[in-house]
Amino acid sequence: MSAVLSIDRHTSPLKLNPNPQQKYWFDPVPPRSVQAERRHRQERLAGAFRLFARFGFAQGLAGHITARDPELVDHFWVNPLGIHFSRIKVSDLLLVNARGETVIGERPLNKAAFAIHAAIHEYNPRIVAAAHTHSTYGKAWSALGRGLDTITQDACVFHDDVALFDDFTGMVVDTDEGGRIARALGDRKGAILKNHGILTAGPSVEAAAWWYIALDNACHTQLLAEAAGRPQPIDEATARHTHTQIGGPEGAIHAFDSLYQGLVEAEPELLL
Fold first, then answer.
1. Sign (positive/negative) of CA torsion 141, 144, 145, 149?
2. Is the dihedral of CA 65, 148, 207, 187 positive or negative?
3. Fewer beta carbons within 10 angstroms: which end of the chain, N or C?
């Protein structure tokens, strides 16, 4: 190990930490009140839509992200039909119950959003948020009808953690099909919906949204790699080990926040 260089603390303009330490982690976030947690989820949800717009994930009327309400746990917050992702504010969000009734908000609800997300939230109480849009690379990969291979370090986030739902029957408009998607997803962080696109879910809005961005990127990466040649997969043991290192929700939260902070600076009206 190389020696650590020292400086003269009396003459140097640098102000060094008097008790330096190694720190490779983020401090845990203190628990929030129900009201504070609701506001947190609403703000990150509105921000997630705007970030998805920046990534090119908005496609007509398609696409939805939901966040379970922390008090009314059989209700979820979701985007209204017909507002572009790039324009969504906190005050635009709808609160929807398990019967598909909008209890807060006046604009229409995407029927597919209810059919898919109500089933996911009911089937797995550990899921706080779920995201699904018709992103280009997610759609392109879904048309192949097979799972992703673990060909890069980033893809290890999804190693053995993405389901394949290969029963496309048209637009999802009833909860029966939503239930089949929810069961296929299970406890995994994502699903490839054959001939449809991709979906992610997680224990926070930040995790679900970041994993969607990352899963679309993994689809893009493998499409490029297969167009160029024959990708070499990472061996099972290494892929599984790397998944334990980078596959958790904590890193996803901070990856999302690194984008969210700049978004709020540039577009503070999203918080209205």
1. negative
2. positive
3. N
